[in-house]
Amino acid sequence: MALWRAYQRALTVHPWKVQVLTAGSLMGLGDIISQQLVEKRGLRGHQTGRTLTMAFLGCGFVGPVVGGWYRVLDRLIPGTAKADALKKMLLDQGGLCPMFSRLFPPTSRSTQWPVSPGQLGQAPADPDALLTNYYLWPAVQLANFYLVPLHYRLAVVQCVAVIWNSYLSWKAHRL
Known about the structure:
With 175 residues, the protein is mostly helical. The chain is built from seven helices and no strands. It has helices at residues 2-13, 15-38, 42-45, 48-76, 82-110, 127-147, 150-174. It is a multi-pass membrane protein.
């Protein structure tokens, strides 16, 4: 409980920084889970650069984009009634998700260390990731927009996303 209270205090004092660092940390954790539990690489086969890439993407891309998106949604559709939450979820799943699914695989591969010249944007989008998204995220986002205050939404999504990030990392690095 002390850790949760410390997190809440930090979120109150530095909301943007804490949200972005939370996204990066949980994306890195998702990659560790992918490499160790799904791919069974073991410690010697673990690709540290890949984990750092996923954490970097969480801090530099996912956290700012998704956190900013939630703010935009709350301005476009103020309120937390069921109808408001449904509208936000539909905009999220119909607007951000297709774009995000298109950008994530090439971005995650293009930021691998070391970076090859001209690597950005060469990888094709994976439509399977978008379709798989629709099995999980509409329900999560509906609950998120209806039940969770704005400043906790990114954290809630990133907690669910630990498993999703494992999947995305696995998909992005097996293509």
